[in-house]
Amino acid sequence: MSRRLADVARKVGVSEATVSRVLNEKPGVSESTRQAVLTALDVLGYERPSKLRGERARLVGLFLPELQNPIFPAFGEVVGVALAQHGYTPVLCTVTAGGISEADYLELLLQQHVSGVVFAGGQYTQQDAPHDHYRRLIDLRLPTVVTNAPIPGLGFATVSTDDAVALEQAWGHLVQLGHDRIGLLLGPADHVPSLRKLAAADRLAGDGGFPRELVAHSQYSLEAGQAAATRLLRAGVTAIVCASDPLALGAIRAVKRAGLTVPGDVSVIGYDDSALMTSTDPPLTTVRQPIEVMGRMAIDLLVAQIDGTAADPDEYFFEPELVVRGSTGPARPRA
Q: Is 80 exceeded by the pLDDT of residue 334?
């Protein structure tokens, strides 16, 4: 017990006596200090006294699908700041191959009595992945917000970048530069944001839709992007629109490995505008996701649910912004 008091007191920056008063429900402690002590118990892994277990911890589960793409840590930082402003602490959950599953992470979070959950990505974005564990959140009425893809039939509040607008911006830029053989380098075939981009391309292409020989699906990594882009180059594309910045960097590598230049021979557009895209060679033209406003909206929706407002089943769309840099240029005249 004395070690627990000392650890919690050190974490919160109060005396052991103050921690003891909170644990024994004694008066003389402010509500903010009381909540900080309870949160510290949860963060440090100490079990709450039985009389306090029914309360929600001021913890929020934050699911990031990966950390290699800088856009996800950046989104996590925005969400973390917004949560702190409301007095909550994020608990980071990152799913890796062979590691803890999403469903297992959820069970761990529920054991910690979290106040809510925010998903920046995950199995819900893939149509063919298991979705059963999400219904548990509905059954428990746990405040939840997801991003960039709704979960059909569950009615979670959703905050999304408008994938159709993103594709239209990239496409319009390349058409203005004279490109008429544009390839799409997208995520997995069942990935909802990629499907939305492909649907927008079909609308732009008109009758018959977008030529499927100019579409390549890939896992979201630089190496996978390079392999997929190589297939598009064999199909004779003069420009490639990518579903993420790492995929775009893989496409640039594929172009260079083929003995071609960017943008002299092939233009490349990314998606996200993640960190360091101004420092690549060439600097990457990309479609910027508005993660600042999306992150704040996600937390506003979550806190409203925590405070008792019913979950809003609507999907809030935010408009992206095309950022033109050095990886796009005029199409080379045909011989």
A: no
User: pLDDT (tens digit, 9 = 90+) per residue, 195-205?
Assistant: 999 999 999 99
Mind listing the pLDDT tens digit for each residue in 291-323? Answer: 999 999 999 999 999 988 887 888 999 999 999
2-52: CATH superfamily: lambda repressor-like DNA-binding domains (1.10.260.40)
Alpha carbon distance 72, 76 (integer Å): 6
Q: In what order do the strands lie in the sheet with 215-217?
A: 215-217, 182-186, 239-242, 267-272, 285-288, 321-323
pLDDT value at position 335? 59
- Model pTM? 0.83
CA distance 131 to 123: 7
59-64 vs 89-94, strand pairing mode: parallel
Rg (CA), the chain: 23
Q: Report the CATH fold assignment for 163-289.
A: Rossmann fold (3.40.50)
* Secondary structure tally for the chain: helices H, strands E: 11, 12
DSSP reduced 3-state for 238: coil
The pLDDT of residue 1 is 55
CA 155, chain centre distance (Å): 19
**In the chain, what are the helix, strand and coil shares in percent, each to the nearest 5?**
45, 15, 40
Instruction: Mark out the alpha helices in 140-262 (DSSP H runs).
Output: 163-176, 192-205, 222-234, 245-257
Please tell me if the domain spanning 59-161+290-319 has the same topology as the one spanning 163-289: yes
Other C-beta atoms closer than 10 Å to the C-beta of 330 total 13
Q: Look at residue 257 in the predicted model and tell me its pLDDT.
A: 97
pLDDT of residue 6: 83
CA 320 – CA 201 distance, rounded (Å): 16
The answer to whether 63 touches 117, Cβ cutoff 8 Å, is: yes
Query: How high is the pLDDT of residue 50?
Result: 56
